[in-house]
Amino acid sequence: MAVTIYHNPRCSKSRHTLQLLEDNKVKPVIVEYLKTPPSKSELKRILKMLNIKPRDLLRKKEAEYKTQGLDNSSLTDEQIIDIMLAHPKLIERPIVVKDDKAALGRPPEKVLDIL
Predict the structure, then answer these.
(1) So which residues are the catalytic ones?
(2) What is the 3-state secondary structure (H, E, C) of 38-105?
(3) How buried is residue 23: exposed, middle or buried, by Cβ count under 10 Å (0-12/13-18/19+)?
(4) In what order do the strands lie in the sheet with 95-98?
């Protein structure tokens, strides 16, 4: 059963989550999502597994949040997803996926629930 982590090596939460997986004998597939963003269908699948709306996966403190007008409440889920894919820095991290389950590593220990 493959485990995938959408990872940013510059993020301490992401590094801690990866270490936590490795400490639990899990060797995940590491996707540096800033270099290789998920496809639109994969991002929609992740959102469905997380059971959240696209807006709930946004990093609201990033400069792109304001410059892309994401504080506009009239944006549709599709529009938000398109902006996230164009600017993957806006995607909250880390995300761990195993089979049909996903967890956001905030805090990192939350990912243990899906292992």
Answers:
(1) 11
(2) CCHHHHHHHHHHHCCCHHHHECCCCHHHHHCCCCCCCCCHHHHHHHHHHCHHHECCCEEEECCEEEEC
(3) exposed
(4) 29-32, 3-7, 95-98, 101-104
pTM of the shown model: 0.95
* The amino acid at 91: I
* Per-residue model confidence as pLDDT tens for the chain (115 residues): 699 999 999 999 999 999 999 999 999 999 999 999 999 999 999 999 999 999 999 999 999 999 999 999 999 999 999 999 999 999 999 999 999 999 999 999 999 999 9
Which fold does the domain 3-114 belong to in CATH?
A: Glutaredoxin (3.40.30)
b/e string for 80-90 if b means 16 or more Cβ within 10 A?
bbbbbbebbeb
